[in-house]
Design goal:
This protein is an alpha+beta fold and 276 residues long. 28% of the residues lie in helices and 17% in strands. 30% of the residues are buried.
Length: 276
């Protein structure tokens, strides 16, 4: 069930014995504190997920103007699942390869390669020609998200300081879809519907209350602010544990583990960030 900013702020006011809007704490201040608290919760709990869609442009490799993502577990171009990697991994830094094998001539205009790229002794991904999506006949298993780029490789996406790149660049206009956790839109009004669920209301209200009481300078408010901060941290930890333990709505019982059996734990990527 969704909640509004006003509901969270009202809870924070009631718990602080501030029953009048624009009274002890102004509406503008409460909205600002709530905005910061909700973004902190979203960033640390990494939930809820949402979808961001946009249309590709022929012969354009990198796309700007996207929301800030805290986590991007899934990416699709024309419905085709695209592994997300990094530029360092595309160039083989993880195996000390530092790809210089490109020899096919100057890169296509509007590509994501470095300025001055003439197509000789350059990374192959910067010279990859455009392709229609979905790209047919490129599926491999497992997906080469950690291997250097090679001609004919399965399409891969990467981030460069919030800019999304796709290799190969699109030749056609299709819908791209990113699924993940984004920075919460700025909270500016009591009537604004929040992305967070109602189960987070008490935690968010306690966080707002902590910031509000911290703004007072008397000893009584300082003691109450310390209590609110401690309760906020406890409720936040409970939400983090709840999210981590949630396993979906599948029937209880044994569940098969799918994946590479020779990896006992998650594969560590030491060359760059996978999500940013």
């Amino acid at each position: 069930m969704s909640i509004t900013a006003g509901q969270v702020i009202a809870s924070a006011r009631y718990d602080s014995s501030d029953f009048v809007n624009q009274g002890r704490f102004s509406d503008a201040a409460m909205l600002d504190w709530l905005d910061r608290i909700v973004n902190e919760l979203t960033r640390e709990i990494l939930w809820p997920e949402c979808r961001v869609t946009f249309s590709t442009i022929p012969y354009v490799q990198e796309y700007t103007g996207l929301p800030e993502f805290f986590r991007t577990p899934r990416c699709y171009f024309a419905g085709q699942s695209i592994p997300i990697t990094t530029i360092n991994l595309l160039e083989g830094h993880q195996i000390q390869f530092y790809d210089q094998t490109g020899t096919t001539g100057p890169p296509v205009a509007q590509g994501g390669g470095p300025p001055g790229n003439v197509g000789t002794a350059s990374p192959r991904w910067t010279l990859q020609v455009a392709a229609d999506y979905p790209v047919a006949g490129q599926a491999t298993f497992p997906a080469p998200d950690a291997s250097p780029w090679y001609t004919g490789s399965q399409p891969r996406a990467y981030y460069r300081s919030g800019v999304l790149g796709i290799v190969p660049m699109p030749l056609n206009i299709v819908t791209a879809c990113l699924e993940g956790v984004i920075e919460h839109p700025v909270i500016t009004a009591d009537s604004q519907v929040l992305l967070i669920p109602r189960s987070w209301q008490e935690c968010a209200a306690e966080g707002v209350r902590w910031k509000a009481l911290s703004s007072d300078r008397d000893d009584s408010s300082s003691r109450e602010a310390d209590k609110a901060a401690a309760r906020y941290e406890k409720l936040k930890k409970d939400l983090i544990l709840l999210k981590r333990r949630y396993s979906g709505d599948a029937p209880r019982g044994p569940k098969l583990l799918t994946g590479r059996s020779f990896y006992a734990h998650a594969v560590r990527r030491n060359s760059g960030w996978s999500d940013w």
